[in-house]
Amino acid sequence: MTGPTSTTLSVHDWKRTVVPLGVFAVLAFAVPVALSGNRYLAFVAGITLIHILWASGMNLLYGYTGLMPLMFAGIAGISAYFAVDLTSSGWSFWIALPLGALMASVAGTILGLPSLRLKGFYFTLCSLVIQTVITLGFVYFAGLTNGDTGISQIPLPTAPGGGTISPAVFDLILATAAVIGVVVLIAITRSSLGKRLVAIREDDELAEMLGINVTRYKMTAFFIGSLFAGVGGALYAPYIGFISPRSFDVLISMNIWLMVAFGGRGTIWGPVVGAVILVPLSFLLQEYYTVKDVIYGLLIIAVIVLMPGGIASGLKRTARPIEAAAPGMAERRGAK
Q1: Residue partners of 80: CB distance under 8 A and separation at least 6
Q2: What letter does residue 245 receive in the DSSP assignment?
Q3: Distance (Å, rounded) from C-alpha 176 to C-alpha 283?
Q4: Which helix (H) or strand (E) holds 149?
Q5: What's the rounded Cα separation, in Å, for the pair 34 and 18?
Q6: DSSP class of 304
Q7: What is the DSSP secondary-structure string of 185-199?
Q8: Are 266 and 63 in contact (CB under 8 A)?
Q9: Helix/strand/coil (H, E, C) string of 43-76?
Q10: Nearest residue to 156 (alpha-carbon basis) of 169, 138, 144, 145
Q11: Is the pLDDT of residue 129 over 60?
């Protein structure tokens, strides 16, 4: 009994995790290379990769911990501004990036403290207020952020051996960050930490009664989720070449949350699907700005009505009957 069961589980894990991860990794690196001849399309692919990283971090908090942090973009902005200020002061970008991400993680953990007292809508509303305060801070601390004017002409980083990195190479760095982000999310969700976060999402009071330290695990989730935001923010600044308070306001937080909800919260590939669809769509609809929001809204409503759990959950539900019927079909073929 034990041998066949473990073999079956390993094959199941291979199909559900390793194969999709391998396909995603190949596409993450291959698409920017294939589009390198068209800088605009390669740029869209790069922005999509950054949003995959951000959406994965949001998914850890929203999908697996049950928190909706609408200050997520503000946390990414803290890292972006911090990294840009360090590099403009002569620091290497490769040192400024982890320091900026660490600063964002610490800030995100502190800003996540209200989640210990507030739940559901009340925490979401509180996070919205926090995001507004962060945006105002970006505007009024002009000595560090250049205010509402923003910081322009942010150069791409130099390679460790010297020489500026080309946009095509930086695309591969973004692909690396996105793949690592998904791998980390998979590792967390399959660990005891992930199981405890899901228990907190379902009922934090019951989780506390079962001996789970809700405070510690919520703060751990905020630290890791904010690390995703921080790495993405530090990479976003040199890739775009310009940042301002508008780059990290509440609309950006809402867009990141929407990618998770659209693709499927609490799933590994939901945020990836959401980012891959919604980010390029926003670029494709730029010329049709009069109907852009209408099309965007109709698409989202269609998914909510037809697939309430998001695209990934809907596809999973569709695949289950097919998988369940597959052994019977194979037996009937064998009988014939």
Answers
A1: 100, 233, 234, 236, 237, 243, 247, 248
A2: G
A3: 23
A4: none
A5: 24
A6: H
A7: HHHHHTSHHHHHHHH
A8: yes
A9: HHHHHHHHHHHHHHHHHHHHCCCCCCCCCHHHHH
A10: 169
A11: yes
Pairwise CA distance, residues 21 & 88, whole Å: 37
**Domains defined for the chain, CATH in brackets:** 2-248 (1.10.3470)
The token duo for 14 is 């291979």
Neighbour-count burial of 329, counting CB atoms closer than 10 A to its CB (0-12 exposed, 13-18 middle, 19+ buried)? exposed
322 pLDDT more than 50: no
Enumerate residues 6+ apart whose C-beta is below 8 A from 283.
44, 47
Q: CA 122, CA 68: separation in Å to the nearest integer?
A: 10
The yes-or-no verdict on residue 167 having pLDDT over 60 is yes
Token pair 């390993």: residue: 10
pLDDT in tens, 208-252: 998 999 999 999 999 999 999 999 999 999 999 999 999 999 989
In this structure, the dihedral spanned by the alpha carbons of residues 264, 44, 26 and 184, taken in order and rounded to 10 degrees, is: -50
pTM: 0.88
Q: 64 near 266, Cβ under 8 Å?
A: yes
- Cα 70 to Cα 143: distance, rounded to the nearest angstrom: 26
Beta strands in the chain (DSSP E): none
Query: Among residues 207, 200, 216, 77, which one has the least CA distance to residue 146?
Result: 77
Reported as a single tens digit per residue, the pLDDT across 252-277 is: 998 899 899 888 888 999 999 999 99
CA 295 to chain centre: 23
Give dist(CA 5, CA 252) in Å, integer: 45
pLDDT at 5 over 50: no
Distance CA 60, CA 268 (A): 9
